[in-house]
Amino acid sequence: MLRAPSSAKFLLLATSIASLGFATATGAQGAPDDLTTMPAVSDDYQPERTPWGDPDLRGTWPINDIAEMPVERPDQYGDRFWKTEAEIAAEQGRVEQLEEAYENEDEEGTIGLGHWIEYQAGSRRTSMLVEPASGKLPALTDEGKRLASLNRSSWVTGQTYDWVDDFDSWDRCWTRGFPASMLPFRYNNGIRIFQSPGYVVITLEMLGTRMIPVGNTEQWPAAVTGMFGNSRGRWEDHNTLVVETTNMQPGASPLNTATRGVPPSNTLPTSGEATVVERFHMVGPDTITYELTYSDPVVWEAPFTLRMDWTRDDTYEFFEYACHEGNVQVRNYITANRTAREQEYARGQMVEPIDPDAGPPPAMDPASRGVGNDEED
């Protein structure tokens, strides 16, 4: 992997069975009697208001507790949106194992996976997908398959590396993509919401801040694009922020490979026709039901909708996602891969030599690990 946070947070919290996704006083959606049905989002809760009268979504909403929820439903759950109580209880064992690893590392003075993985058992849901009801992503169109085959990433098995454009946007520390950036990973899962009159700002612990104007705002011209696109918000009913996003820049995968239950390789394409509609439903004082519908008719045969609960934790601390600093791996991938291919060619295992016009490997930061940059201005 090419990226890592500067300091892993130690958030290995075992969750009691009583709080494993059941309906609670916080307003989180509980499982119905029929586990194959998905109830509508509740609109009963009346949220507090900001001083200027908008529903108050401000706070910190880390999504570690849904980090193990896959986007697509695993086959073992059949047509169920929800896990059984026995399945949820079995998950507690993994939490306890990870918690033990964390404690052992502290006692031994070592740091390993116990200090990296932010995991909480507790999601009663079998997947994020609520539409299609099958829990499976729609198929890619023929054009979507063609575009995916052209994309490059460090996650592609057997790919060669000659230049920085052989890596995806996450490899290069730009962005995890959109709406991928709103979905969980294994760490740096903090989400913080700020509000002011006419704006909602969403700060992500991993790569990025979204500034969303709320009210009557115009869409950008088609030629203007951004990695997070052009988001425009409006208040709906008494408890819901609706955000519509267009003008997304092609290049980043809309579903990041590090989120569970997404297609491999991080090469899903984004076309100029992609749109995202998000709904932030405040369903309790400490719960937002987050819902997004993604549509890209160039790439996907149908839209799809994801839904998950966010839980407030204003004690959660953000840590710097230090991806650029000392990121020697892009250069190392290129030099190592070229060397391997040169050796194969010398042994007669490659038909063609390395392309002499591919360009030199990117120069490494001279401050990184004492390796100098020999290029002259």
Tell me about this structure.
The protein starts with 58 loop residues before the first strand and ends in a 31-residue tail after the last helix. It is globular. The strands form two sheets. The protein has a six-stranded antiparallel beta sheet, with no helix packed on it. Strands 1-3-4-5 form a four-stranded antiparallel beta sheet, with no helix packed on it. With 377 residues, the protein is of the alpha+beta class. The chain is 14% helix and 17% strand. The protein contains three helices and ten strands. A hairpin with a 3-residue loop joins strand 6 and strand 7. The protein has one domain.
Tally the helices: 3
Strand order of the largest sheet: 2-10-9-8-7-6
Radius of gyration: 22 Å
Category from helices, strands and their pairing: alpha+beta
Give the count of structural domains.
Answer: 1
Helix content: 10-25%
Q: How would you characterize the largest beta sheet?
A: 6 strands, antiparallel
Annotation, overall tally of beta strands: 10
Task: Provide mean pLDDT, rounded.
Answer: 82
- The gross shape turns out to be globular
Q: How far is the first residue's CA from the last residue's CA?
A: 31 Å
Order of helices and strands: EHEHEEEEEEEEH
Low-confidence stretches: 1-27, 360-377
Percentage of residues in strands: 15-25%
